[in-house]
UniProtKB/TrEMBL annotation:
This is CLUMA_CG018861, isoform A. Keywords: Endosome, Protein transport, Transport. The lineage of its organism: Eukaryota, Metazoa, Ecdysozoa, Arthropoda, Hexapoda. InterPro entries: ESCRT_assembly_dom (IPR037202), Mod_r (IPR009851). Transmembrane segments: none annotated. Residues 199-283 form the VPS37 C-terminal domain. Component of the ESCRT-I complex, a regulator of vesicular trafficking process. Required for the sorting of endocytic ubiquitinated cargos into multivesicular bodies. May be involved in cell growth and differentiation. It is found in: Late endosome membrane. Belongs to the VPS37 family. It comes from Clunio marinus. One of its GO terms (biological process) is protein targeting to membrane. One of its GO terms (cellular component) is late endosome membrane. Its main location: membrane. The keyword Ribosomal protein does not apply.
């Protein structure tokens, strides 16, 4: 559920969505809509009470018009206003009233003021005499100077100047942070290069590890032992053959014979032990 403040803001937003030429007179309380009825300019004044939108808005028109919906300038008989609830749209209600007066312009009550009617949205005009008002119409520079001194315009200019100062301050902060950003980028690139180098070293080390792991794997060692035993047995046969052919003395033969036999026995023992261990691992 929306609270009163949120409901109020939503209603004011619809006022601006469905209507052109909406002017804020008092924030959150009073607004005006300018429109044309026939050849005449009309101002709708919207006043919002403290309990709006749970309380109906007060709508009135200036200048004085003759219409069935109006009573002393206030709109009292429009059905959409009579049946207004918190679920109604203020913007649509005002839009419907304006369309009626645009399509069917009413009669304007005759008045003969000696001084032009001053719009309440610019109370400073009440302080000007006839000559000054005429000067506003004739002299653009005089008009510009007058407008510049109006409190709402001054407030807007102050807000604009504040926004400009904040923007310049933000731009300066961005420039100051730019050098830090460039340093961070440089550090990032350096770290990235180091990371790539470490990755290359890791890949090279991993490759060497795989090669060594293959070289010293139990299966590879077993095959090397088989080859070593076979080589030792071939050497044994060559020693015996050399002795039988008379190429070695008895002492030489016995020395070489005992050395190779021990070597064969040792290598076979290692081969059998390794085979046993491998078979145990497979169980």
């Amino acid at each position: 559920m929306f609270n009163l403040k949120e409901q109020r803001k939503r209603q004011i937003d619809t006022l601006k969505v469905f209507n052109d030429n909406v002017f804020e007179i008092i924030n959150d309380e009073k607004y005006e809509i300018k429109f044309k009825s026939g050849q005449n300019h009309v101002t709708m004044i919207i006043e919002l009470g403290p309990d709006f939108p749970y309380q109906k808005p007060k709508l009135s028109l200036e200048p004085s018009l003759s219409h069935i919906w109006l009573q002393n300038g206030e709109i009292t008989q429009f059905p959409g206003l009579i049946n207004f609830t918190v679920n109604s749209d203020l913007g649509r209600v005002c839009q419907a009233i304006i369309r009626e007066f645009e399509k069917n312009p009413p009669e304007f009550n005759e008045t003969a003021p000696t001084i032009p009617i001053i719009n309440s949205s610019i109370p400073e005009l009440n302080n000007l005499d006839t000559s000054q008002l005429l000067e506003l119409l004739k002299d653009d520079q005089y008009l510009d100077d007058f407008v510049e001194e109006l409190p709402p315009i001054k407030a807007l200019n102050d807000e604009l100047n504040s926004l400009i100062e904040d923007t310049e301050k933000l731009a300066q902060e961005n420039l100051e942070k730019n050098s830090s950003l460039q340093q961070l980028k440089s550090n990032f690139m350096s770290i990235s290069i180091d990371f790539l180098n470490l990755g290359n070293k890791y890949n090279l080390g991993s490759k060497k590890y795989d090669e060594k792991a293959c070289e010293y794997s139990p299966e590879n060692i077993r095959q090397l032992l088989e080859i070593a035993v076979s080589n030792a047995e071939s050497e044994y046969e060559e020693i015996v053959e050399s002795f039988l052919e008379g190429n070695q003395s008895l002492n030489e033969f016995l020395e070489n014979f005992m050395r190779v036999k021990k070597l064969i026995a040792l290598r076979k023992f290692k081969e059998e032990r390794l085979n046993f261990q491998l078979n145990q691992l497979k169980l």
